[in-house]
Amino acid sequence: MSISFDIDEAVSILERTPKVLSALLLGLSKEWLYNNEESSTWSPHQVLGHLVYGEETDWLPRTKIILEFDATKEFEPYDRFAQDRLYADKNSEELLSLFAKRRAQNLEELKRMSLSSDDLMRKGKHPEFGEITVKEMLSAWVVHDLGHIVQINRTLAKNFKEEIGPWAKYLTVVRSKPAPEE
Predict the structure, then answer these.
(1) CB 89 within 8 A of CB 97
(2) In 3D, which of 175, 151, 176, 118 has the Cα closest to residue 51?
(3) What is the CA radius of gyration of the chain?
(4) pLDDT tens-digit map of 99-136
(5) pLDDT score of 28
(6) Sorting pLDDT into bands at 50, 70 and 90, what band is 181?
């Protein structure tokens, strides 16, 4: 079953992400924050950097590009590994704080835009996907958050994979396979 896009509900989910991540990660040891599932996946710390970078360069900035230029201006390609370069000097607590601040700013700005149903159908030009709508992008923002919450939970759970004994049979989170970060 699928739910139709509603901007107020989308914002409601997006507002929760910083609180969820803070509740989950704040105060954990570096061992928990810097472990990853496999060599080609991200640690919770790297995911936090990725989310901060997305707030600065992706979702809302690209929405503004669509509203100003429609599909006449293609987005800059997104650097999915920028967090390793840009936030190497930040600890997870600093990234959580920065993410919460940037997200609050972006959502306030998004609310001030008062997007109409016509605005949601406006098209932009994505460098990989071609034409996309504002509604698709805002929907993807929500799903992106939820996907990274799942990823972080899966990574944390796998820290005890060898400790749970026979329960691994039923605790599918430790058996699930991550998609490599591309």
Answers:
(1) no
(2) 151
(3) 18
(4) 999 999 999 999 999 999 999 999 999 999 999 999 99
(5) 97
(6) low
Burial of 22 (0-12, 13-18, 19+ CB in 10 A): middle
Maximum Cα interatomic distance, the chain, rounded to a whole number of Å = 57
Q: Which residue has better confidence, 2 or 98?
A: 98
Residue 29 neighbours by CB distance under 10 Å:
8
> Do 145 and 99 touch, CB atoms closer than 8 A?
no
Cβ burial, residue 133 (10 Å; 0-12/13-18/19+): middle
* pLDDT for the residue 126: 96
With 0.85 as the threshold, say if the pTM is over it.
yes
